[in-house]
Structure prediction request, 125 residues.
Amino acid sequence: MKHIPTIARLLLGLIFTVFGANMWLHFIPIPPPPEGPAANFMFAIYGSGYLTVVKVLEVTGGLLLLSGRFTNLALSLVGPVVVNIALYHFFLVKGGYEMPVVLGVLSLVALSGRKDYLSTLFAAK
Prediction:
């Protein structure tokens, strides 16, 4: 049971590294977003360069998670990305809930192994 947060950390790191690097390497075909608000949102963040920053954060966080060094920093980098992925699927796509649920569970499990980080994060000082 003590290895479960480590496995979750490695899986999360692998997911973010692979899907983040896919923006530049194009080894996984990216389907077009569904029409409507989701397509408009993706067009706006891709065209503005915002998505490039997000992908850099994904790759950086993923590599840090895979290395096991600076895990608290890595979780801080990918945490907002996980929230934004979930919000995108819940409010704009209204479907495809598997990925945000998997990312959320993996993030929470990886975070559960970082009790030192949680205690400093929620310290009322």
